[in-house]
Design goal:
66% of the residues lie in helices and 1% in strands. It is an all-alpha fold. Strands 1-2 form a two-stranded antiparallel ribbon. Strand 1 and strand 2 form a beta hairpin.
Length: 323
């Protein structure tokens, strides 16, 4: 922000107190002193209490190096030990590299382990290319759709992926849904083909397995899909809708409700979502639980103008990452 000398003082103080800088400090060091950041990255330890520290720090440094030092950024990124981590910074890196070093961005996207990850990475390569290289952006989008189709044919595969309540999380099951805001932004003529791929990949669960309904991928995907077709989103949301109605019928507690679930319902039918909230009761013990913010969150989202609302929701679901 124009105060680089003061920023250096803050970083020097942080280095004085600790030899293990948090990823955010290392990433800022990369902006101010790229040579120091590169040297530290090559010697980063694996922390016993935090096995993800090294990979997250390396990716954060790579993102900050990408614009002015693309070769070094790719070098740092390739030092990671776990190819599945960390996903958000991987997408940012693909976008930044695509703007200054398209071949490097291609290598990063192609190096990822699963088709779901590669699909998202290729879409962010397309996003980085969209302004100055329309043909390259179109080719990268073709690669993203090819990876989506590969996922449709093979399923999530046998690679180790994060699990929520015993099932694969959203990123590996349905990247097409997460990519719809990117498609709308850079290739709106291809929305339909990606939308129906997202519908085909959307996981179905039985309503009897109520404990699985709290998993975030279903409601997050329905939030995004509702932007383009509320009726289709409502069909896919049916198991969660049954859960919400059951919770309302038994006068359940707000603490049992995940924000994403009621948000998805509001995207499909705002009045019904408000009615469900009104039928629920506050947490049983307000002293031992944080106040439930679901009503405030819903009021905030519904009170925004339409385009601002969708931008806020896309960021909430992780479907849009702007730097």
């Amino acid at each position: 922000m124009g105060e680089r000398d003061r920023a250096r003082l803050v970083l020097e103080e942080a280095k004085f107190w600790s030899n293990v800088l948090p990823p955010i400090f290392l990433s800022q060091l990369a902006r101010l002193e790229p040579d120091q950041a590169l040297a530290r990255s090559q010697k980063l330890p694996n922390l016993p209490g935090d096995p993800t520290y090294r990979d997250f720090a390396l990716a954060a440094v790579a993102v900050q190096l990408a614009t002015d030092h693309p070769a070094e950024a790719e070098q740092v990124f390739n030092l990671r030990g776990n190819r599945l981590l960390p996903f958000p910074d991987t997408l940012r890196l693909c976008r930044h590299l695509a703007q200054v070093d398209p071949p490097g961005a291609h290598r990063v996207a192609a190096s990822l382990s699963g088709p779901g990850d590669r699909a998202c990475a290729w879409a962010y390569v397309a996003l980085g290319l969209a302004e100055k290289n329309k043909a390259g952006a179109s080719a990268a989008m073709d690669r993203a759709i090819q990876e989506i189709d590969r996922l449709r044919e093979s399923g999530p595969g046998t690679i180790p992926v994060p699990i929520v309540n015993g099932i694969y999380t959203r990123r590996q099951t349905d990247p097409a849904a997460a990519l719809l805001p990117i498609i709308e932004r850079i290739a709106p003529d291809r929305l339909a083909e990606v939308f129906w791929r997202a519908v085909a990949l959307h996981p179905r669960i039985e309503t009897d397995f109520e404990e699985l309904l709290g998993s975030p991928y279903i409601d997050y995907e329905c939030i995004v899909l509702a932007r383009y077709d509320r009726e289709v989103a409502a069909v896919l949301f049916a198991p969660m809708d049954a859960y919400l109605r059951s919770l309302a019928a038994r006068k359940g507690h707000l603490g049992e409700l995940e924000y994403g679930v009621i948000t998805a319902k509001a995207c499909i039918d705002p009045r019904a979502a408000v009615a469900i909230l009104e039928s629920l009761t506050p947490p049983r013990d307000a002293r031992s639980n944080r106040p439930d913010r679901a009503p405030l969150w819903l009021a905030e989202v519904l009170g925004l103008p339409s385009e601002n609302r969708w931008t806020r929701l896309w960021r909430y679901t992780g479907a849009q990452r702007d730097d």
